[in-house]
Amino acid sequence: EVQLVESGGGLVQAGGSLRLSCVVSGLTFDDYSIGWFRQAPGKEREGLACSSDNGSRTYYKDSVKGRFSISNDNAKNTVYLQMNGLKPEDTAVYYCAADGTWGCGDDMDYWGRGTLVTVSS
Length: 121
Description:
four-stranded antiparallel sheet
């Protein structure tokens, strides 16, 4: 059974930082693209940062470039999202997802259940 379990969400003040973690099991970590997404209340889910299976390609949504960074620890089957300079508009449920092909869309093969990030002004 494939599982993706996110952690690290919480309440932070504007300008602060958080690091989200996603532990992946049940698939060969190195064979999958992994990404981070979020969904704010009343809005569609959006792709924020994705990394290809071999790390040769990365994608960042314009609104998080320079503030968010995706990284992998293949030995721990874990992907991280370092978030700096957080803004109230970053408040959302954050999800990690995996796909057997390169992409950062809403059609990823596997999804976690999400972790809530709340940024206060």
